[in-house]
Design a protein that fits this description.
It comes from Floridaenema aerugineum BLCC-F46. The protein contains 14 helices and no strands.
Length: 235
């Protein structure tokens, strides 16, 4: 039993998710992500139960813990009431805290989640706003969405759900200042702010500088594909 496992088992999500895995494989059999990715909930549970820090560190540096879609099919079917999805969340937090997330392509996408979903929550109280769903990034949404994207302010005015009006219906309303202060306080107390900062620091350490992190971010804004950024071996 090592340092990483000791820290992992202190996480409430781990405690809720790991009861007594009997290695039956039902979780992998029902997992949608396992059908399409190099990912097995059963493998994750086996590695964690080994209490081997070297294996856990390897897992934290891999893409595997980022393939889970958090559907919790594993929990509903497990004969022992385990939840690999909960264990995965605990592993993700540990990976971010130690900066291991930046070692994998899927893990590095946490920068996008932090700068879009996380910062939207702190600024507006929502994870996703219409301006984030650009037609260039989501061409599959078609011409109707492109039209709405370009005319959303006037259209919402016409629908009588104007943008940026306090307590107006919809995700573009302005949430009262007092409520936003309470939300930010929750993020602070629960450690979410620390995790968001750890994402920035982990990426900076991996890429070598804040400037390089910004290049990585701009590349994603322009191409919508993090694989288009080449990680230099000497970083």
């Amino acid at each position: 039993m090592g340092k990483l496992f000791n820290e992992l088992k202190q996480d409430l999500l781990y405690q809720h998710g790991m009861n007594a895995c009997l290695n039956c494989g039902v979780c992998t059999a029902v997992c949608p992500a396992a059908e399409f990715n190099d990912y097995s909930p059963r493998e994750v549970m086996n590695i964690v139960q080994s209490e081997n820090d070297e294996l856990i560190e390897e897992l934290l540096k891999s893409d595997k813990i980022w393939f889970c879609g958090q559907c919790f099919s594993c929990k509903t079917r497990c004969p022992r009431g385990n939840s690999t999805a909960s264990v995965i969340l605990a592993l993700r937090r540990l990976s971010v805290r130690y900066g291991y997330f930046a070692e994998s392509e899927k893990g590095r996408q946490q920068l996008f989640a932090k700068r879009v979903f996380g910062e939207n929550m702190l600024k507006r109280g929502y994870t996703l706003l219409a301006e984030n769903i650009t037609p260039a990034h989501f061409p599959e949404l078609g011409e109707n969405w492109e039209y709405y994207y370009e005319h959303r302010e006037e259209m919402r005015q016409w629908w009588d759900v104007p943008m940026n009006l306090e307590n107006s219906p919809g995700s573009h309303r302005v949430i009262p200042k007092k409520d936003m202060e309470e939300l930010r306080a929750i993020y602070q107390v629960t450690g979410a702010i620390d995790l968001m900062e750890a994402v920035e620091k982990g990426m900076e350490k991996k890429l070598g500088s804040k400037e390089e992190v910004e290049k990585y971010w701009q590349n994603w804004l322009e191409t919508a594909d993090s694989r288009n950024y080449e990680i230099k071996e000497n970083k």
